[in-house]
Amino acid sequence: MQEKGISVSLQHLTKSFGKGTGRVTAVNDFSFDFPAGKLTTLLGPSGCGKTTVLRCTAGFYEPEQGDIFIGGQKINHLPPYERPTGTVFQHYALFPHMTVYENVAYGLKIKKRSEKEIREKVSQGLSLLQLSGMEGRNPNQLSGGQQQRVAIARVLVTEPKVLLFDEPLSNLDAKLRVYMRGEIRALQERLGITTIYVTHDQEEAMSISHSIVIMNSGKIEQTGTPWETYRQPQTPFVAEFIGTTNFLKGEVTQVDKHSIKIRLAGTEVSAFPKVPFTVGDKVLVVLRPEMIRFSGKGGPGTLPGRVQEVSFLGSLARYGIQMDNGDRVQVDEPNPKEFRNKGSSVSLTLDEEAMHLQKIS
Amino acid sequence: MSQLRREPVVLLVTFLTFGALLYFVAYPLYAVFRESVMDDAGKFVGAANYINFLNSEYFRQVFYNTLFTSGVATVGAVLIGLVFAYGMTRIDLPWKWLFMITSVLPMITPPFINAFSLILLLGRNGVVNIFLEKWLGFKFVIYGYHGIIFSEILTTFPLAYLVLSAALSGLDSTLEDSAQDLGARPLGVLFTVTLPLITPAILTATLMVFMNNLSAFGAPALLGGGISVLAVESVVQILGVLDWGMGTTLSVVLLIPSFLLFYFQNWYRSKRSYVTISGQPAHTEFRKTSWKIKGPIFAFCLLLSVIILITYVIIVVGGFSRVWGVDSSFTLIHYRLVFTNTLRSITNSLVLSSIGALLATLLGLLTAYLVVRRVFWGRRLMDFLGTLPYAVPGTMMGLGFVMAFNKAPLILTGTAFILVLDYCIRRMPFGLRSGVSTLKQIDVAMEEASADLGAPWLTTFRKIVLPLMKPAFIAGITFAFIRAITELTSTIFLVTPRWRVMAVDIYNMVESGALGGAAAMSTLLMAIVTLVLVIIYRATGATTSMFRM
């Protein structure tokens, strides 16, 4: 069943910690409207402020400045137990002195629901997370993945309007992480609850989010869909944080109606920018490793270089190429048919339509 | 754990340590037991003394008094400690620095000084009573059950506070966050999540405080009035009535509940099932608590702190008053007398406590090393013997030393050695326990690396192990010194006119009514202890950890 999700809006949120010279501003004038009923990820390196934003929304921190709106209502003054939010913590925070059943029933008991209703809801919640039969277990008898699911079930049975995930998968091993994030995504789409998800893992963010908010040092660097943030990174930080990137510096030599020509790495290539450029502009060309291909022959529009290192990663071969003009690029070749050895000469072509350009001022 | 049994030095050290523990811990206790089953002529009479004890209505009353006063005091101390701990770790109280001081003060001063100050305040000529009589026409005299209980609560709640605040600070705060997130109000969180999770700590605190109060001597002796408890009665029987049989019997009877608590404490510690899943505790900010909750807690802590401060201030004042309760003019005569008549006691206390503390810590750490790093027959026994003095009431230990070492092969009674021995043995368990926990955190690979590089065992011990145990060493020796110099319960048996110590002198002065002198000397003792702590704190920076055992 689809519920229409509730809106969450943060306006000019600012939060600092510490006193005197040790005072740190974790979040600086953060404003964002989280799309209702969708999963938005706050993504960024450690210390960027994403967890602080989440905890302010949950009510564990009081911001110095700014307002928090849920469903159009300002909730700044509400303590956590009065907010319609439900948080899934990084280390699960399961009550060790209670069984799985008691953990999941906790929120309902507080709402003073009847025993019958609690039992129904708990068993519904557990089966939704494939935990039926675990009611009598203690948290320390469960695996990491199971603990994670109990933590989610515990929050879901209280029917929160907003779901908050604080790096929930960082303690799980790689395969389980991939599996669980798929489960979380499916769950969210099915229930349609507005969700804010915090992680530093950009692959995770890309795979489950409807929108991503990339943060750095307390501020927003860029917001957008996974597609937009990957293919059109607006700052070098975003380009480097999401996926791997190659940066090539070039200069605009010609401007036509729908395309421009750029001189870089000793040759001239075409590009199709979304913003206007003028001849002589310095540009930073942002290219993902898979946007560079090996060309059989040399010639105009190809970039000559030499293989410095090569590694085989199973589904692709990863090359570090030293260009003739000194630039270094990483090239990923999916489904490699042959190996190019260290030291061999190569010619590269760029996927001109995928190239993203940033003006260098 | 490596077994380098081929090293003769280690074998010798192990053997010597074992021997020392057997001779200086087990033997004195045995001596007390033995005396309790003999009559005055030295003939074996079995359980005769114990039967007399059970038959005597007076002694039975003494036994109930002991359990009653220490039980009630324990409940009070733990509750107060809990309120303090919760206030300091979970609520944004104002003036926390004050509460921090007043919660630690009673730990570094002799408990009997607190009893003494209550006499100055609420004794027959107590300051408060003088005013009460003048204005309201009655006196509230502190002697009796209520005096003992009140004094014991004031002096032992810091222990409960330290244990509980450590537990509360160590709790993963996301558990309480999560409870609030699920809708529980702060009080609900306290009762459904916080308290259940610190139940082990509450139990530990209760056991420790109970053991402490059970064997208390100073407070009941000074404030009991007509009421006697086992520790006091055994001293009376030995030093007053000269009935060694009965005195030792009472000591042994006191040992029973104390030992049961000790055993239970150990068993419980090993049984603990749920450990909060660690990981970095999330940064919990003190969310502003409403004054509805904050107010009463603040008022309570403030009231208690004021009471404690008054008890210390009054002693300082008492040292400068001519005749307490009668003539309160300022005088330095008491201090003059202290520095002339009792100068010997002061130097004795300083020197003997220092030596005793040093030996206690060395022996404790050495034993800790052997117990943790070596495997040998009797290892468990060595661990037990090293910790045993903690479970034995001070009176019994003191008695044991007197009886074991007043005849061949080693006659120590009447000398300074027996005092040093007493300090050493009674304070060793702390060094042992803190040594054990420190060693468990030091990777044995370091010693293996040292051996691999060619160092014999003694070198490794000197150059690698001891330096790494420095924090335990410093904490151990400081704590041992403070407890030694303020010690009364066992020292009271061991002093002689030639070898007196400050604690016993103060006690005697209070008993004989020389309140001014007692106050002056008490102030001096507190000053010494504070000075030692300040020096250590300046030198290292770590203080509170040393009070937890």
Overview features:
heterodimer; A: 361 residues; alpha+beta; Rossmann fold; OB fold (Dihydrolipoamide Acetyltransferase, E2P); 2 domains; 6-stranded mixed sheet; 5-stranded antiparallel sheet; 8 helices; 35% strand; elongated; B: 549 residues; mainly alpha; MetI-like fold; two-stranded antiparallel ribbon; 25 helices; globular; disordered C terminus
Provide an overview of this structure.
The complex is a heterodimer of chains A (361) and B (549). By secondary structure, chain A is an alpha+beta fold. Chain A folds into 2 domains: 8-240, P-loop containing nucleotide triphosphate hydrolases (Rossmann fold, 3-Layer(aba) Sandwich); 247-359, OB fold (Dihydrolipoamide Acetyltransferase, E2P) (Beta Barrel), CATH 2.40.50. Chain A has helices spanning 50-58, 100-110, 115-128, 144-156, 174-191, 202-208, 226-231, 236-241; strands spanning 8-17, 24-34, 39-43, 65-70, 73-74, 85-88, 162-166, 194-199, 211-216, 219-224, 246-255, 260-264, 267-271, 282-287, 292-295, 303-312, 316-323, 328-334, 345-350, 356-359. In chain A, the strands form 4 sheets. Chain A has a 6-stranded mixed beta sheet, with helices on both faces. Chain A has a 5-stranded antiparallel beta sheet with strand order 13-12-11-14-20. A 5-stranded antiparallel beta sheet of chain A has the order 15-19-16-17-18, with no helix packed on it. In chain A, α2 crosses α3 and α2 (100-110) packs parallel to α4. The mean pLDDT of chain A is 90. Chain B has helices spanning 8-36, 48-55, 57-90, 96-108, 111-122, 127-136, 145-170, 173-181, 186-197, 199-214, 218-223, 230-240, 244-271, 291-320, 333-341, 343-373, 379-391, 394-404, 416-440, 445-452, 457-468, 470-485, 491-494, 502-511, 515-540, and strands at 321-323, 327-330, 406-407, 410-411. In chain B, β1 (321-323) and β2 (327-330) form a beta hairpin. In chain B, the strands form 2 sheets. In chain B, strands 1-2 form a two-stranded antiparallel sheet. In chain B, 46% of the residues are buried. Mean pLDDT of chain B is 87; it is low at 273-283 and 543-549. Chain B folds into 2 domains: 11-41 and 342-549, MetI-like fold, CATH 1.10.3720.10; 47-269 and 293-331, MetI-like fold, CATH 1.10.3720. With 549 residues, chain B is mostly helical. Classes of the chains: A alpha+beta (361), B mainly alpha (549). The interface between A and B is medium-sized, with 32 and 28 residues.
